[in-house]
Amino acid sequence: MISPVQAVPERLRPLAREEGSESWSGSYSVEISESEPVFAGHYPDFPIFPGVCVMECVRRAAEAETPPPAGKLRLDSVESTRFLSAVHPGDRLAIELNWSPRGEGWRCQAKVATQHGQAATMRLRYLPEAVA
Amino acid sequence: MTAAAGATSAEVRATLPHRYPILLVDRVLELGEQEIRAVKAVTFNEPWYAGLGPDPDQEDLAYPPFLLIESWTQTAGVLAKRLAGSEADGQVMLFGSMTGIEFHRPVHPGDVVEHHARLERAVNDTMIFEGVSRVAGEPVLTVGRITMAFRPGEQLNPAAGPATG
After folding, report:
1. Which residues of A touch B60 (CB under 8 A)?
2. ipTM score
3. What residue of A is the nearest CA neighbor of B24?
């Protein structure tokens, strides 16, 4: 899928099943370079990485590797997102992902932090691609 | 919706601080006291399409779903700016949180997205909006609730502590 963010999430910890549970977790890192195209317009002379671009980094990390039992998934909804601090050029996002089966689909819960502290939390819902 | 004039593309650009490549509202059809309807035309000429491979399929051409949220939110932002009046001058518009955002079908170049945002309520300096986005009358996105606030830009300094993004 095309993306408003150029940086590619770097995998720090491969997705692994948590012992004694059906959850899977992994972690990623994304370096937010000042050359990201969105900074030109968000905002001129006052660069803030847009909240939806933080969400985009999480989406790309989530979709880079999904839990093997889930099969092919598609994004159904953003159950919730909370933005806790602004992200600036030069920040590095640390993304912790936790997948758990929910009903016929999966929930991917994410915590995003920068070197300044917590930046965002998010819950994405995915459904099997076969479900209309 | 109460009878209300819209806003030209020039007025939209004057209202929102966003600029290319992330000014994602083209024109306001109706701007009322509590509601707004605006359009965003999706085209191949948006920069996100520049990195496509030689033979993309229809799925590859889907508009990034979170940009659809951004576009809807900018629409709500035009209404928020009107409601805040001069108090918002010089301040930055920020999301606090979002819940219940559902994607119903992909959007592609050539689609004209019509956003509809409604003020659910305002609490102190925070506004809560809900709404829907449609293409040719069919919902592509529903927004359960998004909270938005205006904050002085200096609060966003990384050293200044918690702020929203």
Report:
1. 1-2
2. 0.96
3. A41
- Domains of chain B plus CATH, in order, are 9-160 (3.10.129.10)
**Structural domain containing residue A124:** 10-128
Tell me the two tokens of residue B136: 């040719």
- Cα separation, B12 vs B9, whole angstroms: 5
Q: Express each pLDDT in B90-116 by its tens digit.
A: 788 888 999 999 999 999 999 999 999
- Contact: A38, B48; criterion CB under 8 Å: no
* CB-CB under 8 Å, A44 with B165: no
Q: Is A37 inside a domain boundary? A: yes
Active-site position among A11, A42, A88, A102:
A42
The CATH number of the domain holding residue A91 is 3.10.129.10
Work out the end-to-end distance of chain B between its first and last CA atoms, rounded to an integer number of angstroms: 31
Please identify among residues 92-131 of chain A the ones whose CB lies closer than 8 Å to any CB of chain B.
Answer: 116-117, 119-120
On whether residue A108 sits in a domain, the answer given is yes
Total domains present in chain A: 1
* Interchain pair B98, A80: CB under 8 A: yes
Flag whether A4 is in a domain.
Answer: no
Q: What is the pLDDT of residues B43-66, one digit of tens each?
A: 999 999 998 889 999 999 999 999
H-helix segments, B53-126: 65-84
| Residue with tokens 């969105």, as numbered in its chain | A38
Residue A79 counted as domain residue: yes
Q: Which of B91, B115, B104 is nearest to B140 (CA)?
A: B104
